[in-house]
């Protein structure tokens, strides 16, 4: 209920005024078109950069390590999209395509632990606990790629994510120095899928800057032997 004399939200917002002249409207349309093109450039570049390095679990080359990127939790358990990524990683392990699964996600607060939830899910799908390595500081795709290379010593890997994200992941990991191949997990074209695709347009701009300037991740820390130990004969 609005009190008498109080302005409404509409009153406080500036009025949207379209150009009155034909020339002004033409410039507005041209500006909008240019903005759309600029937004598409980074995403298009990443698709071209990934090239033929994206396929299915059956098409993936044999690599020692699979990297699974976090995709959120619901009540402490992987979201359906993250579960599908983990299912694909478990299939890669069962078929002998990979020997170790590196799960990378967000554990920036006590009540939110993506890597441990991912580990629990994988062990429930038959991947031995000793073959799973956790990266607790994979706050975004660039951080995950850089940490996989610099902290865990990963030089070659199969990356696992949905199709709308995998080209960005491959491009970023290659920029970080990893010989990467991406497995694109199939998903129905639902609202979540379309949201993910739209989100990629915004994320691809930041990713292009990351690939160009190669900043350090939010948290780097010391090197960790987890992957090497998991790959050792006794691991």
From TrEMBL:
InterPro entries: Cell_Envelope_Assoc, DUF218. Pfam families: DUF218 (PF02698). Transmembrane segments: none annotated. This is ElyC/SanA/YdcF family protein. It comes from Streptomyces pakalii. Signal peptide: none annotated. Residues 65-192 form the DUF218 domain. It comes from the Bacteria. CDD domains: YdcF-like.
